[in-house]
């Protein structure tokens, strides 16, 4: 196809791409809005050796992974539940708790997620306090030169929305909707690929220059129309008909699918 053909195709069927993208974006936005939001609270702990010793510093880096494992234990979870008076089991709390270590900065990050922002903040803050107290108790039994200090850098100030990410879902719905709309357009063009519409089509098919044409007697039966495929093309040429409904449904499914997939992955 030449550039002129693509421009003609865009004018003819571009509305399909736009409509599917719009419907997919709106449905992804709506589906995201009806979901119950999950909030995330985070707190960072600083882990420092008692002295600036290369060997002790490397020991601390190795211990960070061990600390992350120790935080995610049922014993620690039960202590947090009792202190914060949370109505949940240790299994429930551990499903809401995430710990990561950063050896380059000697820090630990505790993240708690819950549908209630207050509960998310309580879990993160209380777990940090319990762990710091546990390390302080351990340090009392060690020589001062071998102690490893663990302290809270900043208390939890707020809980941010973790999911659903409405803007991301809406944008993804629009992009995938546009892609689906493009596939629909090319599918329709493939269905009508053997329909002869112009003099150029005739010359391309038979390889002979056309010297003259006979006006069509009726627009209802154009030259070269194949009945089976014409039924498909009519779906998208009769205004707000079955074709439009199918495009709308396709966009709706794409938008809902994008939002649902995002919720499962996050």
How would you characterize the overall build of this protein?
By secondary structure, the protein is α+β, with helices and mostly antiparallel strands. It folds into two domains: 134 residues, no CATH class; 126 residues, Alpha-Beta Plaits (2-Layer Sandwich). Strands 1, 2, 3, 4 and 5 form a five-stranded antiparallel sheet that branches. Helix 1 crosses helix 9, helix 3 packs across helix 5 and helix 6 runs antiparallel to helix 9. About 8% of the residues have low confidence.
List keywords for this structure.
five-stranded antiparallel beta sheet, single chain, Alpha-Beta Plaits, 266 residues, alpha+beta, elongated, 2 domains, 13% strand, 9 helices
| Low-pLDDT stretches | 219-229, 231-240
Beta percentage is 5-15%
Structurally, the number of domains stands at 2
Tally of helical runs: 9
Overview in brief:
The protein has 266 residues and is α+β, with helices and mostly antiparallel strands.
List the helices and strands and how they pair.
Layout: H1 3-33, E1 38-49, H2 54-71, H3 74-84, H4 90-96, E2 97-102, E3 107-114, H5 117-139, E4 148-152, E5 160-163, H6 166-191, H7 199-206, H8 227-234, H9 242-265
Antiparallel strand pairs: 1-3, 1-4, 1-5, 2-3
Helix pairs in contact: 1-6, 1-9, 3-4, 3-5, 6-9
């Amino acid at each position: 196809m030449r550039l002129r053909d693509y421009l003609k195709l865009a004018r003819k069927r571009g509305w399909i791409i736009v409509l599917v993208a719009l419907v997919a974006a709106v449905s992804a936005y709506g589906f995201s809005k009806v979901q119950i939001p999950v909030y995330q609270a985070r707190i960072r702990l600083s882990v420092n050796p008692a002295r600036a010793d290369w060997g002790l510093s490397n020991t601390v880096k190795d211990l960070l992974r061990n600390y992350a494992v120790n935080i995610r234990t049922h014993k620690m979870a039960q202590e947090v539940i009792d202190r914060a008076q949370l109505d949940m089991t240790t299994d429930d709390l551990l499903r809401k708790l995430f710990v990561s270590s950063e050896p380059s900065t000697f820090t630990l990050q505790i993240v708690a997620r819950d549908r209630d922002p207050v509960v998310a903040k309580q879990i993160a803050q209380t777990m940090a306090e319990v762990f710091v107290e546990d390390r302080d108790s351990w340090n009392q039994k060690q020589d001062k030169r071998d102690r490893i200090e663990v302290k809270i850098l900043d208390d939890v100030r707020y809980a941010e929305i973790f999911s659903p990410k409405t803007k991301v879902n809406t944008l993804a719905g629009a992009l995938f909707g546009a892609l689906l709309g493009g596939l629909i357009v090319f599918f329709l063009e493939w269905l009508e690929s053997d329909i002869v519409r112009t003099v150029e089509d005739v010359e391309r098919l038979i390889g002979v220059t056309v010297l003259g044409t006979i006006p069509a007697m009726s627009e209802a039966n154009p030259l070269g129309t194949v009945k089976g495929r014409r039924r498909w093309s009519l779906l998208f040429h009769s205004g707000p008909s079955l074709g439009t409904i199918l495009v709308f449904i396709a966009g709706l499914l794409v938008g809902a699918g994008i939002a649902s997939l995002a919720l499962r992955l996050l």
